[in-house]
């Protein structure tokens, strides 16, 4: 199995916004997604990142979000370009694992008509709710999501349980031990990470924004505290990721400026 974490966009921001011990100098914050060539299941995506779809909606809330963050799309990291590089296209994607519903993880979902979506029950329940004024406050923009009724979905909780090398257990997504979902609550309802057993790699997604936050036990940056709905749960998820790292597992994060 081959796994990659292409960078589909970058956001120019103050380093202190992602690392509370850093200065105010500007840095590029990457946005990643996972692209997996699975021996049995074919092409699998973990989230879909940002894409041009982010700019096709003209809702005021999404306009404000784009104006605030100003993400710069990276054409070479676009899913279409990355799929073409392995001789595949959107119709060849068989599975998409959604770690959560923030805008930088869900753009362009409706391009993958043949894919089964896998997500936690909490994520699918959040998706199914009626629109609320609270949505934009948690970076949930429903106009980026296809109709749930038109999507083939499976809850991660329906997969069998499997042990994790650092303790605890997760859900064996394909039943072969290759990819195990791990609950990482706090950042958003239903947030999960993925452990790749063959590579001994844990994609902890947004449990933390930098490896320094895990290794050095840094506090959450103030902007993370603002958008985190359950801070105690988020700190527990960081502790889970720290335990994985301490056991020798390689950690990957969605926004860590270090190479991944």
Overall structural class, as computed from helix and strand content, comes to alpha/beta
Can you list the strand order of the major beta sheet? 1-4-5-7-8-9
Shape: globular
Binned strand content:
25-35%
The count of helical stretches stands at 6
Radius of gyration: 17 Å
How much helicity do the residues have?
10-25%
Low-confidence stretches: none
Biggest β-sheet: count, sense, barrel? 6 strands, mixed
- How much is the average pLDDT? 92
**Separation, N- and C-terminal Cα atoms:** 17 Å
> What is the N-to-C order of secondary-structure elements (H for helix, E for strand)?
EEEEEHEHEEHEEEEEEHHHE
Number of strands: 15
How would you characterize this protein structure?
- By secondary structure, this protein is of the alpha/beta class.
- Helices cover 20% and strands 26% of the residues.
- The strands form three sheets. A six-stranded mixed β-sheet has the order 1-4-5-7-8-9. Strands 10-11-12-13-14-15 form a six-stranded mixed β-sheet, covered by helices on one side.
- β4 and β5 form a beta hairpin.
- The protein starts with a strand and ends in a 7-residue tail after the last strand.
């Amino acid at each position: 199995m081959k796994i990659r974490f292409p960078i589909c966009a970058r956001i120019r921001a103050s380093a202190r916004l992602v690392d509370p011990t850093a200065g105010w100098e500007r840095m590029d914050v990457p946005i990643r997604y996972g692209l997996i060539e699975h021996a049995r299941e074919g092409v699998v995506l973990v989230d879909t990142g940002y894409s041009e779809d982010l700019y096709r909606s003209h809702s005021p809330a999404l306009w404000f979000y784009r104006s605030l963050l100003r993400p710069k799309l990276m054409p070479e990291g676009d899913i279409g370009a990355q799929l073409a590089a392995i001789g595949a296209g959107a119709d060849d994607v068989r599975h998409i694992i959604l770690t959560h519903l923030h805008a930088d993880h869900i753009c362009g979902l409706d391009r993958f008509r043949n894919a089964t979506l896998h997500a936690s029950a909490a994520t699918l329940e959040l998706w199914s709710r009626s629109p609320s004024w609270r949505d934009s406050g948690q970076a949930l923009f429903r106009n980026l999501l296809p109709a749930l009724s038109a999507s083939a979905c499976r809850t991660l909780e329906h997969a069998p349980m499997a042990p994790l090398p650092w303790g605890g257990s997760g859900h064996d997504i394909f039943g072969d031990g290759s990819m195990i979902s791990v609950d990482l609550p706090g950042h958003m309802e239903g947030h999960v990470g993925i452990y790749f057993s063959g590579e001994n790699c844990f994609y902890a997604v947004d449990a933390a924004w930098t490896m320094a936050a895990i290794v050095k036990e840094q506090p959450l940056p103030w902007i993370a505290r603002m958008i985190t709905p359950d801070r105690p749960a988020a700190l527990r998820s960081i502790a889970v990721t720290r335990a994985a790292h301490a056991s020798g597992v390689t950690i990957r994060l969605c926004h860590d400026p270090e190479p991944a």
